[in-house]
Design a protein that fits this description.
heterodimer; A: about 425 residues; mainly beta; 16-stranded mixed beta sheet; about 40% strand; globular; B: about 260 residues; alpha/beta; four-stranded antiparallel beta sheet; 7 helices; 10 strands; about 35% helix; about 30% strand; binds adenosine-5'-triphosphate; binds magnesium ion
Amino acid sequence: MAETSQLSTEIAESPSSEAKVAIDGFTEEGENLSPLNTGTEQHGARRHSHGDEPVVPEASRGERLKSYRLADFAPLTGREEDWRFTPLKRLRGLDSKPLTGQGPTVTVTGASNVQVETVDRTDSRFGSAAVPEDRVSAAAWEAVSTATVVTIPEETVADCEVTVSVRGTDNTVAAQHIIIDARRFSRAVVVLDHHGSAVLAQNVEIVVGDGAELTVVSVQEWDDDAVHVSSQQAKLGRDARFKHVVVSLGGDLVRLTPSSFFTAPGSEVEMYGLYFADAGQHLEQRLLVDHAVPNCKSRVTYKGALQGKDAHTVWVGDVLIRKEAEGTDTYEVNRNLVLTDGARSDSVPNLEIETGLIEGAGHASATGRFDDEHLFYLMARGIDEKTARRLVVRGFLNEVIQQIKVPVLEERLTEAVERELAAGNY
Amino acid sequence: MSTLEIKDLHVSIETEQGTKPILKGVSLTINTGETHAIMGPNGSGKSTLASTIAGHPRYTVDSGSITLDGEDVLAMSVDERARAGLFLAMQYPVEVPGVTMTNFLRTAKTALDGEAPSLRHWTKDVKEAMTQLRIDADFAQRNVNEGFSGGEKKRVEILQLELFKPKFAILDETDSGLDVDALKVVSEGVNREHGKGEMGTLLITHYTRILRYIKPDFVHVFVDGRIAEQGGHELADRLEEEGYDRFLVPGTATTGA
Ligand SMILES: Nc1ncnc2c1ncn2[C@@H]1O[C@H](COP(=O)(O)OP(=O)(O)OP(=O)(O)O)[C@@H](O)[C@H]1O
Ligand SMILES: [Mg+2]
């Protein structure tokens, strides 16, 4: 039914229960009466659209340059595989200027039994989880002189959520470094709460020790003019559980590159994302799951809504199953809901499989439009247009919010989504 | 008592080949308590009539009128028509992403009544109606029509009919895709609501079998965008035996009749 629903979908070897388009245009009776649904173009839905610029191809995601030195990364042209969707001009110099600004203030609150330090860059924990994979990340790495380190001690269960509040106060280009160190058998939820105004290049290093259970939620509720480029790399030990949640709502340009690296067997990651782009906003997320060892599991679910002129979202999901990673079980899905004309959503799942000895590997990507048929159905039941749209978006995004499983945060994010919806002028 | 009056209705749609006239002068009056069956071959314009009454944006009314107790229905938006008391059980109900049935039903009921239903009564009403239509309780937590079978979708349309209590129900091929048991269950639902004496019913169907369960007072045969013949219940019996062939003018033959 691909041609009759306004969706494109891509499913490879996915578990059958999930091999299903979430937003289906019509019934299995196979008829779609609406001429409004037949063209994919007019709905802004596209299959794995690749920007218009010629792109420098990349042999394998696993071979991307990694370096702590800025000089190793050539100046950006926009033709690089990993920058092709990003409007470089709107980086406001994060890729080209010295990152000398003061940077946002960091305040850590919450659990009383975790350790919070500000350390000098000579501290041995610098580089314990991450190596920059792009120019802005490397620039930030070189620019910072200190880092905020949150340590959850061995076998400690944090007595409540840890909130790392990152409040931006000015627009000078700045760099920042945060290290989250979840030691062996610890358990914690750490929320990175970004707000205010900033032009920030950020590296977040996350160590998930053997048997540790860590949730990191990165919330971007920046002011309208903020620019935020953040590399968030996690290194997982044996039998670790890591949940990473991205919530991007505010900011002019927000580009997150969350990565999970498996270094020992028996570990699991869940990566969730929720983004809601308004007119003019560019919200980009490029994630990587690197299955380099046997018997690890990963699940990725990102959902985005778009409304307004030139709202742009990008999702790139790289999942790498290396030769050694036998018994891997992975599934990633991205769904986007385009609410108005003039918004654009790019979705690129990328699964590289180097061994056949796996449990399962699949991906799905769909960009649907809340279209006239959905609207008609709800309105034919007496529901006005505005309420109908809210009903749909709320439901669509709630699916991710419910996965966070931190009640206070779920509540707060539900409210934030409501505010986004209220701000939309239909 | 209410009256839904359709007068000399001409409707067209925009296609890639240009404007295509579909309804070519339809007149029909339905009063509260009456059941009218519209029967006709595929493509004769039955759904077009139903969707036009509900206000689907695809259809352009070129001339004619639709009034509900004298009020101009064509001037109303889709949601206003529903709130005025018109209900369309769709031939192909759409799947609505992210919205649970529970949430949808309550939101619609609130919109239709202008106030939220008392939670206790509402929950009870929904449960009862679902049981009577043999809809599993877990449907309440599922997204609207998502992954429902053809028959399940139709039951859910009738569930809404029973909960929303419209002045006029337009049932577009509610019988298609139903097995005999489901057809009975669904017909009983319609009859329950109709039997309260506060609703008029416009039953659109291609086949006569649903008319064994829902007895029409009037039968209208639809051919090529017009009512070709009307009569009482006996007309349906004739159609059962003879089919639509005698109505099909050579050259205007429609498919699959
Ligand atoms: N989107 C469309 N594009 C082109 N033609 C259309 C479109 N929608 C309807 N039509 C045409 O309009 C005419 C009437 O269609 P309609 O759906 O009203 O018929 P129907 O009587 O309900 O048929 P069925 O018994 O198959 O449900 C048909 O010829 C149909 O092909
Ligand atoms: Mg029809």
